[in-house]
Specification:
The chain is of the alpha+beta class. About 20% of the residues lie in helices and about 45% in strands.
């Protein structure tokens, strides 16, 4: 009887040890998926075209997360960046002009967006719009509210 209990105990311990072992399988390396992201500042909206006297100073986040500044850019302006999510995209800018070059009437506004290509489809949400006004009304508005020449847009991917 002692031999049977001893043999049963050994089998039971062996079974517990085998059941406790977990097969270790290496986890597959995650594949990094990159996307093409686009920063865009448009010069048209509906039937309005922004007056060509306006230029753009813009700062945006590049693929390495660094800020890059471009000055005196003509519109429309667009920058394409290859990103790997998670990514925080930021674009900020200021419209500049030479008062002597302002036409009368003029068209001014902002139409900005940050978009992404996925599966050969482009997704972008543009915000803002343009309006037509006289040169003097524009100058009065900018004198009272200079922040109208600035914009900031951020988006996480």
């Amino acid at each position: 009887m002692k031999k049977v209990i001893f043999l049963f105990s050994i089998l039971l311990m062996g079974g517990v040890m085998l059941a406790g072992c977990k097969k270790i399988t290496p986890k597959p390396e995650p594949t990094s998926k990159t996307f093409t992201m686009v920063y865009r500042v448009a010069d048209t909206f509906n039937d309005l075209v922004m007056s060509p006297c306006f230029k753009l100073d813009v700062t945006y986040t590049d693929a390495n997360g660094q800020s890059v500044t471009e000055t005196n850019c003509t519109l429309p302006w667009e920058k394409t960046v290859e990103i790997t999510p998670p990514f925080h995209a930021k674009m900020e800018g200021t419209f500049t002009y030479d008062e002597a070059e302002l036409p009368d009437p003029l068209v001014f506004g902002r139409r900005i967006g940050i978009g992404i290509y996925k599966n050969d489809s482009f997704y972008i949400s543009m915000k803002g719009g343009f309006s037509r006004s006289s040169k003097q009304l524009f100058l009065n508005l900018v004198a009272e509210q200079p922040e109208r020449l600035n914009f900031i847009l951020e988006r996480d991917f």
